[in-house]
Design a protein that fits this description.
Elements (H helix, E strand, L loop, with lengths): L3 E4 L4 E7 L3 H6 L5 E5 L12 E6 L5 E12 L2 H7 L2 H4 L6 H9 L4 H7 L1 E8 L1
Helix pairs in contact: 2-4
């Protein structure tokens, strides 16, 4: 899904979409860390920026503030270093988490671009 970027004087607002159940986890505050490959606008995102996250149907949205951005060499490293429940509230182990992310990102992408953990808070 396409991401949009709107620049303000002191921060940037990005827009994107999230599938269920992750949209609801984000909206209800269970999911406080977004894990992404560090490419595209994810290379640019910084603390203080905002993200407006829409559900897939675009019938609901939530705005979050970026509190911190941490870089890792792989999804595995991120899942080992961060509290996994803040990233994937419905996952119990690092291995299960890697399985979730393998649906979206290859090992080659992780190696080429790196991985970021975007810590967010609802506003």
């Amino acid at each position: 899904m396409n991401m949009q970027k709107v620049s303000h004087s002191d921060f940037t607002t990005y827009q994107n979409h999230r599938r269920e159940p992750y949209f609801t986890f984000l909206k209800n505050g269970q999911k406080t860390i977004e894990g992404r490959i560090k490419k595209g606008w994810y290379e640019l995102i910084k603390p203080g920026d905002h993200i407006i996250v829409h559900n897939e149907e675009e019938t609901d949205s939530v705005e979050v503030l970026v509190k911190d951005v941490r870089t890792y060499i792989s999804i595995k490293e991120m899942l080992e270093q961060e509290n996994i429940k803040n990233i994937l509230p419905d996952v119990e182990t690092v291995e299960q988490g890697i399985g979730v992310y393998q649906k979206f990102y290859t090992k080659e992408q992780q190696k080429e671009f790196g991985v970021i953990a975007i810590e967010v808070e609802k506003i």
